[in-house]
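Data availability (excerpt). The following record was deposited with the supplementary files.
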Amino acid sequence: MASKMTPVSLQQMIKGDRMSMITMSDDNAMMKQIHATHAHDGREIDVRPLFQLVEDILNRSTPEVDAIVTTTQTRVETWEDRTQHAGFNAMIDALSHTIDRLSCEIACKSCGGGDAHATTLSIFNMLSSYPWDAKLVLTLAAFALHYGEFWLLAQMCSANQLAKSISILKQVPVLLEHSALLKPRLDAINLLIRAMMDLTNCIIEFKELPPLYINQDVVALSTAMAHIPTAVYWTIRSIVACATQITSLTSMGHEYVISSTNETWEMSTLTHKINSILDHLKKQLVTCHQHIEEKRNFEMYQMLRNLFESIHVDNMKILKALIYAKDDMQPLIDGSTKRRVHMDVLRMKNVLLLISDLNISEDELSILEQIYSESRVHGNRMQSQYEVVWIPIVDHSLEWEDPMQKQFENLQATMPWYSVHSPAMIVKAVIRFIKEVWHFRNKPILVVLDPQGKVVSPNALHMMWIWGSNAFPFSSLREEALWKEENWRLELLVDGIDPTILNWVKDGKFIYLYGGTDMEWIRKFTTTAKAVASDARIPLELVYVGKSTKREQVRRCIASITVEKLSHCWEDLAMVWFFWTRLESMLFSKIQLGQADDHDPMMQEIKKLLSYEKEGGWAVLSKGSHTFVNGHGTTILPTFLNYEEWKEYVPTKGFEIACMDYHSKVHSDSHPCCRFEFLSTAGRIPEKMKCPECLRNMEKYITFLCCHDDHNIKSLY
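Predicted structure:
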């Protein structure tokens, strides 16, 4: 049996090592020595498989025997899968001799009490022809042989006679007997080993960075590569220190080992050093990964642009590029069955991509579901050839937490159409494409792809709000054709909202739509309009349609109008929302088609109404389908208040013409200002607009607005 090392010799070794750390504190001088040993012969080695094997050995090498036994079977099976291939075995064959030599060198020097730096330097000399990452992994493998053997005996000595006999020679049972007292030392060693493995893994990750996307022109990578030799030195130096500690455990009496605290201090100092280097390299690695991700995202973004500019036989390539999914995955949820399905269910169909964040409103979903369901029940065969897919857009820079997952699942559960299984399937490059090319901000859009994956409408939501499923196949060509069939009439404003009004239209009644939130104006207008209608003996119906914003004020106005019986009104605020959404969609549909400023009388009237609504009251006066006055409250109310001035013309001209002529006179004297408001998050904000009154180019302002309304009905774009 080898004689025990005396306490004096160990103290000299420790003292010499500490002195070495002090005298070698000049990193520049030390690293000159290390660099002088480096003579890489150009061979490149994939050290990842070897490191995984070493990591497995060191992870299992722990004094917690019970925990190891319970997990041994599954972990061994995992490693059988990893190592049973020719390439791995060939690598081990080629490197085993070097690992053995290193193991002997480390064991010999750790027993001899030599200087730790000198031992480290000798290891670098032995590995001079290897790259830096290979130097480190090979040395770690050599240490794993030594360290793993020690703990293998500790784990098996109670169950295997051969292991028991060998362990007695190495004094393992004595150490296990005093393991509680040795815990601080063992913990310090384990912490250092964990730090060494983490740093080694980090260095390997730098080696594995794809050269296609990053090179040393990137500052983060060049900085890291300059620090890696130092990192490798201190890790190998720490390996030597750990090996020395294990040797001291078996070479000296446990009484001395327990009483000495120098070794624990040594381990803690090196752990701090390794972790400091690791923190620095990790920061550089994060920066490198960000650079690579940006490069890959840009590459994928360009690929998407090229894909959409190309011709395809079907839509599968396009859809698979938008929705990241492996071939064996089922990326969609079928809204009718709530089961996962393959992308093939969309093959050769018109696909409507409903793109939104997680804050899509219940009103929007409700109307969409109604249109979708009606097309399925009443639509013809062609209309059933389209499918809707919800594409949820989330900020990947934010941590995905349980409340967000719950919000996503709740929305998904309400949808009868297809949806993406997880927002994570919509990657950053796709989100960038959707935002930059399809102009998505925060408000929902409905991008339409034909059966070949070609975009036929950048946002069909506008035409769907206006014409419902009649807009099929929801292409821009269909949108233009529908506009050519339209004219300025009451049905355009209220179609699909209130059947009662449509019945009044059929009966040829006078119908006044009006809005605003000024109850004093509302009372005056409704009272005066009824009095005029009574005097003129015309059948009149008044309908309050509220305002596009200030939902709570609209609710209070509806309550007052109902109590005071001033007029007909929509008590369901979803109807108010849909009225204004359709009206705004008419404008944005024209903007999308590039026709917002055409000299189209119908479009001018729509723009006037949207402008009047922004401030004060307003009214649209119709007889049956024919709309004859569209005016702001400052002109409509005076027209009725001054009825005595134009009532004489009613018998000869008719009520509509007489009213229209007098309103035109009042309007020419007042010239109310026109304005339009667009949310900064709108997808397609026009660069300029012409006034619907005077046709001049309007001035452009930036406005900050707060309506103090948590349930504000915001404009679509």
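Summary of structural features: The first helix runs from residue 7 to 23.
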